[in-house]
Every structure is written in C-alpha cells, then in structure tokens.
Amino acid sequence: MTRFMFATGIENSYPTIDGGRTRRDQLEECHHYERWRDDFDLVEDLGIHYLRYGPPMHLVWLGDGRYDWGFTDQAFADLKRRNIVPIVDLCHFGVPDWIGDFQNPDFPELFERYARDFARRFPWVQLYTPVNEMFICAVFSAKYGWWNEQLTSDQAFVTALKVIAKANVLAMQAILDVRPDALFIQSESSEYFHADSPEAIAPAEFMNALRFLALDLNYGIRVNAEMYRYLMDNGMTPEEYDFFLHMRLKAHCIMGNDYYVTNEHRIWPDGTTRASGEVFGYAVITHQYYQRYGLPIMHTETNFREGLEGDEAVLWLWKEWANVLHVRNAGHPIVGFTWYSLTDQVDWDSALRERNNRVNPLGLYELDRSIRPVGRAYKELIAAWREVLPVFSLCLQVPVGRPRDFDEPLVQRAIEEARQRRVARGERCRAVVGSVTRD
C-alpha cells in the first residue's frame, strides 16, 4: 500500500522581470547548482521519500527538440539512486527566452513536445506537475504586471490562462503516451476572497469564481455564466473553451492545494484587495475545492517565516498538520503534505519583483544548510505519523512506485495494464464520435 506522501520541495522558480531583461533563477540564488548533492542528503536525513523538484527549463530547453540535459541527467540519476520519488515541475513560473512569454500561442504545442521528450528520457518518473500554480502564474504575469510579459489587462490574463492551461493538458496527454500510469499532482494556489462590506459581495463572488478558472479548464469543468462571459469577452473562443470540456484526464489527477497565510484576501467594493491573514484556514478552503472537483487531495505547499521568537514556523507547521488531519477525518481522501521549500528562499518578500538578495527564512534549512527548528519539527512529525497514516483513497487506482521499482515485473505489468486501459478508452471515444457523426 502506498503510504502517506510526506514531501518537501526545492524552490526552482525562474520568471523574468525588468521587461524580460532579468531572469530570477531560484536554483542559482539558493545555491542548489553547487550544493545539489548536499540538498538530496538533507532530504534523506529528514526521512522524506517525495520531493517536488524540476529541471531549470530555461537552461535545458534550447529550442524545439534541442536540449542541454547535462545538469538534469546528473541530478535525476542521483534521485533514482537514492530512491527518492520526484514530483516533477516541468514549468515553474517562466519559459525560455526563445519562447518569449505566456502570450505566445505556440507554447502549448511546443511544451507538449518538451514534456514527451522529458518522459522518454526519464521513463521511471511517475509523478508530475506539468505547470506549477497555473492561476498564480497567469495573474502575476498578465494581470498584476509583475513577471514575464508584465501585462495588466483582463485580455492578457485570459490569454495567459488559456495558453498555460492548454499547455498543462497537452503535457499530461504526452506524458501518458509514454508513461500510461503517470499521476499528475496539480499544485495550485487555494484562494478565498472575503467581502469587506455588503457592497463588496459582488466583487467577492466574482473573484471566488475566478479563482477556480485554471482548474476548471484543466479538469474540463463547466464554468458559470458570468465566468463564461468573462472568458468570451476577453479573447477565448467557443472552440478553445470546448477543447477543455472534451478532455478526460481527471482519473489521472491528484488535486494539489497550496496554502499560505497570504492566500485569503479582503476585498472592497471597487475590487481592490489585500491579504486578510488566516480566516478560514486550509481545511475549510480545501473542502470547497474538493466539493467542486471530487479528486484525491495533496497539501502541496506551505511555509511560514521564522520570526524573532524562533518558533513561529514550528507553530504554523503544527497548525497546517492539524488541518490536514481535519480534512482526512472529514472523510476526504488526502494523500500527502509538503513543507515548501527545503531551504530558505531569496526575495519572495517582493514576489521576486525586486533583486534585493534578501534571504527569506522560510525553509526547513538555512542557505548554509544548517537545520532550522521547523526542520527538526518536521522530521519528528514524519517519524511519528508515517507508519500510522496509510493513504486510504479508493481513487488512487495505480500505486505510486519508488524509482528502484521501475524495472520490477509488478510495476511493468501495472504500466502495461494502464497502457491497455488507455487504448481501450481511446477506442471507445472514437466509436462514440463515429456514431454521433453517422447519426
């Protein structure tokens, strides 16, 4: 039986700022390129078997079908040797310079080929997040004007969102062609907007529908009338919308919910917002997402700044874990938890918009790789709960295999059975389409 997936992640964001002139590479800024072996040692020392991790796409992907796999080959070979299961981020808030940005309509098909080539090169990888935090990526890039295209309009946001969501869907299909038992843990920010007054109810309702758009498109869920009109008014065509409705990939998905203290917002009648702090909390908001999508859940990101008292992050860890247990005890199939990230980060206090080289004390370890109190607390939590908290979700029809198990007959048989089911579903779909066409 697959056990509960305790995880961490290595922060690998790489958006551009300053009109595309400056690349923010968190793998470089957090010294992972020099210390990646040390970082994997830390993962093992914590007793963690699952790692949110991704290649630096802006350095790997040199052009359509052209790659520099040097660093990625070394790192992933070492993960396989250590038997650490990567949850692979293929796109984390940025694209290579030659693609431009998320306004590029060619990105989905190009990314589809990139994802297929990655899966072929690393066939033992089973877990993926094709595009990390699709909603946040589109908002920060094309609505707030912070990253990448740095635009600030509804039309730019809808363009980015449909490009990103289509890229995610096509990547899932491409990976399943190679690894038919792949599972997609779609890390996505869990948001909620609180109305400040009766006059703010309408903008709050709008934003509380908007927050679902990325996952609605990804999972083929029909949006409400207001969201449909918003999409159509801002550049999505009916044919583009129909593309998402006809995708049937939910059976391969785990819903990843990210939650930080900044994920809840207070909204005013004019639509302006600011962070409200924790009001509902992870369990309440995750319940809203589960009601909408009905998928297995993983808490895929959280962290908290270690402050002057030194125990602030430890207390937040305890609170988030209590929320995870509450979700589980409510009968929802929650399969994993993640403290993000392994080490401290750099300049996330300005959302990477400013190069201040300011270290944010958010990690399980400091940048010199000394453990923080929250790192010790997480290690103890994992040791205490691992053996008594099996995954109980009936939705996980395919077991999650460890890297060393890839060549085992049982795993190969599961892959072949998944391939046959995928072929059979394709034949049934073609038969239905043919029947409708004849009628």
Based on the model shown, name its key terms.
GH; globular; Glycosyl_Hydrolase_39; single chain; hydrolase activity, hydrolyzing O-glycosyl compounds; 2 domains; Beta-glucosidase/6-phospho-beta-glucosidase/beta-galactosidase; alpha/beta; TIM Barrel; Glyco_hydro_1; 439 residues
Description:
It comes from Microvirga lotononidis. GO terms for molecular function: hydrolase activity, hydrolyzing O-glycosyl compounds. InterPro entries: GH, Glyco_hydro_1, Glycosyl_Hydrolase_39. This is Beta-glucosidase/6-phospho-beta-glucosidase/beta-galactosidase. By secondary structure, the protein is an alpha/beta fold. It folds into two domains: 5-405, Glycosidases (TIM Barrel); 407-439. It is built from 15 helices and 17 strands. It has helices spanning 26-29, 32-45, 57-60, 70-82, 107-121, 134-142, 154-178, 201-210, 213-219, 225-233, 238-245, 282-293, 312-329, 373-385, 409-438, and strands at residues 5-9, 16-17, 22-23, 50-53, 61-63, 66-67, 85-91, 127-131, 183-189, 192-195, 253-258, 264-267, 273-275, 297-301, 334-340, 345-346, 359-360. The strands form five sheets. An eight-stranded parallel beta barrel has the order 1-4-7-8-9-11-14-15, surrounded by five helices. A three-stranded mixed β-sheet has the order 10-12-13. It has a two-stranded antiparallel sheet with strand order 2-3.
